[in-house]
Design goal:
Largest sheet: 6 strands, antiparallel
Structural class: alpha+beta
Number of helices: 7
Number of strands: 13
Low-confidence stretches: none
Radius of gyration: 25 Å
Strand content: 25-35%
Mean pLDDT: 87
Shape: globular
Distance between the termini: 55 Å
């Protein structure tokens, strides 16, 4: 690798030499010498790369199906960063697997550790509204219900133009090994601006069947009422989604 000298600097490949900028410095080096696809698949020096690629592919598959499982809670919500943020979550869960060999570490094994469920619950699905509302709430797994206390209309932070708030609750069962999933949804609850209670609950009627981990999911969204019809208000600050590990 050598630095380019002269008045005019070139970028590209010429005569088997690559000309480029490295940290703002014009640099030249002989073309080639890197790893091609065959080398990545076969070279002993690329074992770590192959291991990382294998685990990344597994996390990518889980990410795709998990987003599909969350789709009912994400309708109307647009966030171009969600895919990458979920990917980091599943890679972090995979890293918690200290029993499998590198290249075969699994998200499900990582989730089964003491820290796994907390990592999932701490994930901010909707960063612009990380909490559903400014009140006390949690999901009671024994009663299978979202329990809310110290609630007020002011704490709900209605966006301008909103007449009612939708609260949606469900329990998702997701299998990290097979990427299969199922869910049970509670009836949607709408809370208008004249709501006066400080506590309420929303119960789910049973658990989804099958194998896999259980995750409760709650969403709030806001609507404007026009001629007895509800129209979902856009804007990411008006959407809140949270997950509660079992």
């Amino acid at each position: 690798m050598a630095k380019q000298k002269g008045i005019v600097f070139f970028e590209g490949t010429l005569g088997g030499i690559n000309f480029y900028y490295r940290k703002g410095v014009p640099t030249a080096r002989r073309a080639g010498g890197g790893f091609n696809a065959k080398a990545i698949k076969t070279s002993p020096k690329m074992v770590r790369v192959r291991e990382s690629n294998s685990e990344f592919a597994l996390c990518s598959t889980i990410n795709k199906h998990f987003k599909r499982a969350l789709k009912p809670f994400l309708l109307g919500y647009k966030d171009g960063t969600l895919h990458a943020r979920l990917m980091r979550l599943f890679l972090s869960l995979k890293d918690l697997d200290v029993t499998s060999v590198r290249g075969k570490r699994k998200v499900g094994v990582g989730y089964a550790t003491a820290y796994g469920p907390r990592l999932l619950s701490d994930f901010k699905v909707t960063p612009e509204r990380p909490r559903l509302f400014d009140a006390d709430y949690s999901f009671d797994w024994d009663a299978l219900q979202l329990e809310v206390s110290n609630f007020s209309i002011a704490s709900a932070q209605y966006p301008v133009g909103a007449d009612t708030m939708e609260v949606m609750v469900g329990v998702l069962r997701f299998d990290f090994d097979t990427c299969t999933y199922d869910s049970v949804m509670a009836d949607r609850v709408f809370i208008d601006r004249d709501f006066g209670a400080t506590t309420f609950t929303i119960a789910v009627d049973g658990l989804p069947e099958g194998a896999g981990v259980l995750v409760a999911v709650a969403r709030v969204a806001f609507y404007q009422r026009v001629n007895d019809r509800l129209f979902l208000l856009p804007g990411s600050a008006g959407f809140g989604v949270e997950m509660f590990s079992c």
